[in-house]
Amino acid sequence: MRFRDLLAIILTGGFAAGASLVVNLALIAIVPLDAHAFSRYVAPVIEETLKTLLVVRLVRSHRIGFLVDAAICGFAIGTGFALVENLYYLESLPTARPVVWIIRGCGTAIVHGGTSGICAVLSKLFAERRRAAGPLVFAPGWVLAILIHSVFNHFILSPVISTLLVLFILPPLFMLVFDRSEAWLRDWLGVGFDADARLLEQLEAGRFGETRVGEYLSSLRDRFPGEVLADLLCYVRLDAELSLRAKGELMMREAGFPTAIEPEIEEKLVEMRYLEKSIGATGKLALMPLLHPGSQEVWQRTLLRKA
Q1: Left (φ > 0), alpha (ψ -120 to 50) or beta: where does 136 sit?
Q2: What is the pTM of this model?
Q3: For a 10 Å CB count at each end of the chain, is N or C smaller?
């Protein structure tokens, strides 16, 4: 994740906190609940809904590539939200004891980051499995975030113990996400890299028709005109080339080498957009078994545009 991208996400989280403050103040004046009941049952719904809307935007715009990106982006949303919220409470409670700020800083603030991080991770996971980003993809993470937030606001245990539980539970959970995502990334870089390189090698050697991919495209001859079949083949080739370039980009960043977008990459991205219009939705569906799963294909191009 680039630092400026994280700053932008943190800022959007802060705007979400400002919006939730306005909504909460408006509702608390008309909802027949006392302040404690409101903070337990109404505020978590409003706040987690606004944060989830930011997660929806990130997932649907393909700004998130892997689970670890989802965890980072989600926690960044919660960080911005908690920062603005704590500034508001700092002004409202200037004489509060230090223990109050320990609870708010280490408890409530991390809950905000944790709930939005969990929501983002689950949303990314379900989006990859369903190969779509419909409302049902985001519902589990949204509901779980509300439940965690509400339970924390109940303070079933003492505030200090609740804060300690948050500090002991959430970090190991995110470490598990990081380990899972690292394994996923290794698999994508290894298996995917080999498959893309092998496909390009077969295309260069003129043996594409002998491969399973070639046989599959040949089976589509009766279903598409010749010019569309040619565009389908070009699309597969460009997809493999850009996929290799994206994987190389990640490897170079990991090794600390500077990267920059090349003119030919931008030309290929433009050609990909043209081919997408040429083959249409039916062509994309026909190529689905040959392309990278889920949103990885689109995310790779987003990565290259920001190189």
Answers
A1: alpha
A2: 0.67
A3: N
